[in-house]
Amino acid sequence: MYSKPLDEPRASLPELLSEIDPIALGQAGLQALALAGTAILARHVASGDSVGTITDLRSVLPRQQWSILLRALGAFADPRDWPPDADRRRAEAATVMCLHARATLTRPNRTTSRRGVV
């Protein structure tokens, strides 16, 4: 990352924003949400009986993790599907989130190591 010497004047907000690649930043944000949400599910959720190809997930989460999980699910929910069926929308978002996390973790050029984010 580029940093200016301390004796140079600070850049204005528009200058700083113009240096940011919004696509790369958005993709990194989605990857982080997918990994965080999937890690929460893996740690706290017990799967119930399978119905066809869908598994019923049950859990009681600490408030902070519940908030992160809901935000992650919101990022992966299809906005065209806004509630008629909130449970189905959440289930689809969880599937997309987990697939995105798996793709991130199995990508050969990823920025994580076995010990965590580098």
Automatic annotation (TrEMBL):
It comes from the Bacteria. This is Uncharacterized protein.
